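Postdoc handover notes: sequence design on the structure in folder B. Input tokens:
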């Protein structure tokens, strides 16, 4: 099979988005136990931390298009992938907060997830732009399938693709 010119940018976008999503999902196995047992947090706190990344994703996605017009999709994607990685790495330093400080631990966790969600919104929008520019004919059927769907339907949309 001959490698087409659009395959590499599409594959790189898929790998970048997958690694960023994987990095965010690495919190799920250990974070609830850390918050609940070490910091005497609540289940609501766990929910707030994991739900925090969705809010900026919903609110900032429309603003990423003008930002992308200024910076270009590749620059936006590269910078936001680095930002997501920095947020994931920063989670490893939260354990340095004393166990008696539940509120600062949850506040720092929520702040990191808000920044991570903002970066994810930019990354996903830039990846879509790169893919559509690299392979407009091949990607058009996919873009028509998700066109007009609500950002709240993201998990369902991801499963369909």
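Designed sequence:
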């Amino acid at each position: 099979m001959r490698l087409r010119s659009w395959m590499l940018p599409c594959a790189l976008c898929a790998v970048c988005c997958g690694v960023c999503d994987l990095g965010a999902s690495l919190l799920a196995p250990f974070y609830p136990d850390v918050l609940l047992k070490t910091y005497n947090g609540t289940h609501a706190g766990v929910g707030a931390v994991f739900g925090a990344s969705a809010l900026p994703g919903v609110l900032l996605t429309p603003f990423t298009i003008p930002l992308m017009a200024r910076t270009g999709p590749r620059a936006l994607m590269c910078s936001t992938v680095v930002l997501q990685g920095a947020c994931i790495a920063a989670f490893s330093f939260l354990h340095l907060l004393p166990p008696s400080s539940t509120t600062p631990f949850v506040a720092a966790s929520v702040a990191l997830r808000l920044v991570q969600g903002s970066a994810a919104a930019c990354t996903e929008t830039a990846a879509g732009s790169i893919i559509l520019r690299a392979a407009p004919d091949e990607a058009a059927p996919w873009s028509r399938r998700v066109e007009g769907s609500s950002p709240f339907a993201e998990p369902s949309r991801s499963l369909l693709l």
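Context for whoever picks this up: Helices lie at 7-25, 27-38, 43-51, 54-71, 73-91, 102-134, 136-146, 154-160. Don't rerun without checking with the PI first.
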